[in-house]
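Q: what does this look like with iron/sulfur cluster bound?
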Amino acid sequence: MKSDLVAGFSHEYINYMLGGTYRGSFRPLNDAIMAGRIRGVAAIIGCNNPRSNHDYLHIEVTREMLKQDVLVVQTGCGAIASAKVGYLLGEAGLDEVGPGLREICETVGIPPVLHVGSCVDNARILTVLSQMVEEGGLGDDIDQVPAVGLAPEWMSEKALSIATYCVASGAYVIMGGSNPVEGMVDRVPQSRYVAEEILLKEWENLYGGRLEFIDDPQEMIEKTLAHIDRKRADLGLPAYDATLWGKSGDWRMAELETLPLEARENALYGVPVGDD
Ligand code: SF4
């Protein structure tokens, strides 16, 4: 059992981590998103569900988000899935992380997945998004931030109610499985209108967020990245390009480790005076 996992990042603590006592601020996070080091943010939350293999959807989606330089925040039972595979372990999960996100995690000293609390703490994620908007550079409201909420293995009504308040706050939310409203279409034909028009279109017109049900993890990943990239473009931010990042820090260290010992010492510590 690994013992050094880091859990419980409140919005106050994320603020502190990014700037310390004197300059606590979301500015470094916003700047990293605006530059493209971090492509966007995915909140991957919610239950496990016996209709899919335990943890499978959580891990499948989280793993790809990290590779794509998307910072992941998690709550509830889904966060335990990440803890089991090591994504909450300080820098230990960073070998599976894209180059830009890795630079940020190593600089700040955070794991690539931030555990934000239990599933009733999802309001903290909205607080973080509000503070990011307040900090400036990522639009005027939550619906403009390059961020997506996902509950890949949800099963509880509580998860659905959380999803709806997130949508009402402007978030695009993807739930796993099929839409329970569509299951009513045979008995209540108007349900089709709710499923296809209200959840996907009318809510977006009213609040900027929408609620979609997707059972294929690949489609969840594609739609999440497409939404993040569309929001980046709408904000006028540069298109995500992973080749721009990861040329500093540990990459230099990896290069140094290939040198013979003396050459490495000289590169690291300089040539002593009188020895050249
Ligand atoms: S609603 Fe229950 S099962 Fe779902 S994330 Fe919360 S605690 Fe876990």
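The chain has twelve helices and six strands. The pocket of iron/sulfur cluster is lined by residues 46-47, 76-77, 119, 156, 158-159 (CB under 6 Å).
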